[in-house]
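Late entry, evening session. Most of the bench is empty. Finally got around to the prediction I had been postponing all week. Sequence below, unchanged from the version circulated by S.P.
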Amino acid sequence: MWRLHRYYLRELAINAGITFIVLFAIVVVALVGRGIQRSAGGGLLDAAVITLFWALDAFPHLLPISFLLATVMTFARANQDREIVAMRSSGISPVLPMSAAVLLGLMLAILGSVAMHYVLPEVHFRKYRVIAEAVRNVVVNMGLGSGGDRIPIPGTDVLMTFATRTGKAGTGEDIVLSDAWVYWPNGRMLDQRIVSPIFHVERVVIPMPDKESAALRIILHHIRDPMGSLEIDQITPSFPARAFSEQSRRDERDDDMVSSQLLAEVTRGVHQAPVSAIYTIYRRTCFSLLPLLFAPIGFCIALFTRDRGRAMALMFSMVPLLVFYAGDIFGARFVRVTDCALFGWLPAALLVVMGLPFCWRELRR
């Protein structure tokens, strides 16, 4: 029997690996534009790291989906080749080949559990920390290293021209611009006394941000308007990283913390939203259990389609996915309405309730 298990385990692992790589590549390609946009002012490496981190956020979805598709394709092929019929004719229960899928699903569930509870929260946190390093690269990549006399601030309409410059980008020194003209469309946001969008600055200092800084700071010394009727000694505007890297604000902070930390904060009573934290833990557990739940369902879908072909089997495999994600969406809404974290188990419960009779019927045929 181990030879039969090894035969299907090898095919399942190959199909699941290929499917996961293809799906992950599609996600990476789809997120390249977002990575470039969010690393505006940074380098190519910043864009690549941000794209990779954002793509890794799709891991909880890609792992079970690729395993489900691989299970359906593997056993739909075996069904078409009459391997399942031959085993049944020999008195071998279909539970035996299904156990190979369950075994691989169990291993993937363990891998997914470690990733969901400990690895991915760290990835989710670090994908936003990359922005802080990109801010440092803004100074290097703003054109200060070239011979030009114009400096655009990435992600804004602010533009500066200057006569002389001291300091060199990329060396850690502060950049000092003398006799500068600044175009600032919303100048009143700097100071209510500024009326003209164009004004003269005697000296502009751009300090090199440190590693912990998530903002670009500019010091403007001795400001006056073109007519000379206004003089301001100093203004220090700053551009947060989100102004030119992040276009939206994150409201969900529990995703940044590992499950043990969330549980510890809830147990000590220091978490501001304990129901939300427990719901996050339950939801992570549901996603980590998906491969184990999809193993018998995918096998029985392959049996159900029989001679309808692998394309039809793949179409039927969308049904458990729709059930799970519908449960995930409605579970989140029910948690907000009822303030009960147990709805985090709703997606897995729906799969078990709807999949158990279906699998029982197919296995007993």
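Two things to note before I forget:
Residues 140 and 169 are 5 Å apart (CA to CA).
Residues 143-147, 243-252 have pLDDT under 50 and may be disordered.
Will write this up properly tomorrow.
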